[in-house]
Amino acid sequence: MGWVAVLVVVSVAIMLIAFRVLRRKGREDGEHVSSSVDFSANLALAVYLLVLAYAAVLCRDGLSVSDADVQAEAESLTEMYWSVAPIPEAAPVRSQIRQYTAQTIDLDWPLMAGREMSPLPGQTLADMRATVLRLRPLGDDSKNLQQAALDRISEVSHARIVRADDAGTGLESTFVILMIISGLLVIALPWTLGVRPTTSSIIADVVRAGVVVVGICFIILISHPFSGLGAVEPDAFKAAQRQYDQIDGHFPAQP
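Above: the chain's sequence. Below: its structure in token form.
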């Protein structure tokens, strides 16, 4: 959000300065037409729209991939809870699964907007693995469930690493720089003619600047999968918590 505010303030300041300079030093519009300036402005507009469209596609794909990764991690947690539920001595594992899920929602999510993650859920996951390994199930069925739980822990551990990578990603600064440069050219090139601004030209300049700024701000707001517009929320983990309660109804935890 800071970048958006800075961009808006800078754009407004540049426009006010340009209008003031042109009003004082600009000449009257004598039907002066510069084909080279028109061509350059159209070329800058084409580049701007191309980069804007490509950046929007990249951001949308990043959001979709991050959301799918979160869904996969929550699903693995639910399946792990199912795996340990029939094992009578696995009540501590259930508690750790719930703890990891709650820590992910309460600790990880606020930090992921800043490209960081809390170390506590990772420690809980390691403790969970140790607890499952210490189980001494009776019978082949319980042993198979224990192995399934260990497999699910591996899946969750991998999914957590993937989620950390997703939180650390974002739109490359190259695209933002290209959008800003091409957008500035779209706005400023007509001013190189040195024509004193009129009401109609000011309206046109404001519209051009508005389109450019809104486009860049929109891309900045969707450039990170865990912050801004359309950010991935921990809804999948909250759904997993509700699933845990349903599983407990089928297999009540034994002390």
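DSSP finds eight helices and no strands in the chain.
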